[in-house]
Amino acid sequence: MSTYDVAVIGSGPGGYVAAIRCAQLGMKTAIIEKYKTLGGTCLNVGCIPSKALLDSSHHYEHAVKHFADHGIEIPGDVKINLDKMIARKQTVVDQTCDGVSFLMKKNKIDVFEGVGAFKDATHINITKTDGAVDTIEAKNTIIATGSKPSTLPFIKIDKKRVITSTEALKLKEIPKHLVVIGGGVIGLELGQVYRRLGAQVSVVEYMDRIIPGMDKALSRELQKAMKKQGVKFYTSHKVTSVEASAKEVTITADDKKGNPVEFKGDYCLVSVGRKPYTDGLNAEAAGVKLNDRGQVEVNDHLQTSASNIYAIGDVIKGAMLAHKAEEEGVFVAETLAGQKPHIDYNLIPGVVYTWPEVAAVGKTEEELKEAGVKYKSGQFPFRALGRSRASGDLDGFVKILADETTDEVLGVHMVGARCADLIAEAVTAMEFRASAEDISRMSHAHPTFTEAIKEAALAATDDRALHV
Asked: What CATH number is given for 2-149+275-343 in this structure?
């Protein structure tokens, strides 16, 4: 029987990063993955493939709608080759997953393919696809089994007409009418992909706004931008039934007045969030407790009820974000090595990769009001930037919230071009507890999108933005 200092169950961003850091710190490490490829949901059927399709569809939309504005003329009609687009997406996925395999070899991490299940707190059975079982011994274990798409009790996911994000990434045709249940990150991103490619897209959301976990101003701005792109929104609509036939799906929902509304499409994407995945883990055999939401319970050290077993990522409480899982993986590895790492969960950024992109870190206005914190706000529109006019990306703004007394930045919220990258500046500033004035006095290259951050900081500092 092979014996390890650490075994990691699950090879998503949290799991494989945890394994690498453990190996770097001198621990003999194994990683267990039930699928043939490493990388988990994010690399195989989540973050990476969805961004590949978002980029491809963005190129197509630019060619059709915007190239002429730049003096670029394409003879004949621009055509979509969906098969090639999906194939390119898969190439990106394969290259990324191969990269993780390379990192496992580089760091001398043993990879086991199969379903990992606890025999007890220090032994793990690994069941292969052929039914054979290997058993390893691990002094410590990190559970990184991730999550899977949620659904509603009355919805039957047939993976043909009623689909999840996994099936949406490999459709054989462009939908005529894609009905998206859920106005969160995944539904909006994939909805935008197929809207760009010509599908009619309707988003049905239970809450009174899309991306409900983010600042209200971001919700309003993104919805306004996507409406201009042709996406239809039905907020405050409670879905009551989903019925599929061979070629059509009928979705019934009650609007905010309780009146039934019917939607008919050829595909229905169910995007109502994700839930922790612990199937087959046999957690109870190791003394690992789950809460009533199916999450693995952990303490502040990410330690489970079994002292030598830890859990990270989507399988525990908190935002289901790949970069959050990565930070937790490093945290556990360094904890096991006797170091004193820390994670500030308030400074884990959230991003929506639509175009315009949406990104945020820290507190929203709603949270500050609820907590009774006195704050000031500064906002600057991308439309006023020279760089935005040069590229044609005029939608959106940057908003900075700062403490009314100390001027410390409490939250940064943005919608616009390259916000997924711009948010890192806000995270850096807030990690060092910068004030709005600190940011306003930093030199930002001109012309860049980052100037909107400087201007928003100026606006939050005595309302002295320069370019509005």
From this structure: 3.50.50.60
Contacts of 248 (CB under 8 A, 6+ apart): 161, 264, 265, 266
The CATH class, in words, for 347-460 is: alpha beta
How far is the C-alpha of 458 from the C-alpha of 404, rounded, in Å?
Answer: 14
- pTM, entire model: 0.96
What does DSSP say about strands 115-120 and 123-127: parallel, antiparallel, or unpaired? antiparallel
Give the pLDDT of the chain (468 residues) as one tens digit per residue. Answer: 999 999 999 999 999 999 999 999 999 999 999 999 999 999 999 999 999 999 999 999 999 999 999 999 999 999 999 999 999 999 999 999 999 999 999 999 999 999 999 999 999 999 999 999 999 999 999 999 999 999 999 999 999 999 999 999 999 999 999 999 999 999 999 999 999 999 999 999 999 999 999 999 999 999 999 999 999 999 999 999 999 999 999 999 999 999 999 999 999 999 999 999 999 999 999 999 999 999 999 999 999 999 999 999 999 999 999 999 999 999 999 999 999 999 999 999 999 999 999 999 999 999 999 999 999 999 999 999 999 999 999 999 999 999 999 999 999 999 999 999 999 999 999 999 999 999 999 999 999 999 999 999 999 998 889 998
Q: What is the DSSP letter of 394?
A: -
Q: Which residues, at least 6 apart from 122, have a Cβ–Cβ distance to it below 8 Å?
A: 137, 138, 139, 308
The domain locations on the chain are 2-149+275-343, 162-272, 347-460
Q: Point out the residues that are catalytic.
A: 446
Q: Which of 323, 339, 350 is nearest to 17 (CA)?
A: 323
Q: Which residues contact 154 (CB under 8 A, 6 or more apart)?
A: 240, 241, 242
Find how far residue 316's CA is from the centre of its chain: 16
Q: How is domain 162-272 classified at the architecture level of CATH? A: 3-Layer(bba) Sandwich (3.50)
Domains 2-149+275-343 and 162-272 share a fold: yes
Q: Which residue type occupies 219?
A: S
**In the block, which residue shows the tokens 């989903």?**
242
Residues in Cβ contact with 76 at an 8 Å cutoff, skipping those fewer than 6 apart:
none
Q: What's the CA gap between 334 and 110, in Å, rounded? A: 20
Distance CA 429, CA 432 (A): 5
Nearest to 193 by CA among 43, 41, 52: 52
Q: How far apart are CA 18 and CA 12, in angstroms?
A: 10
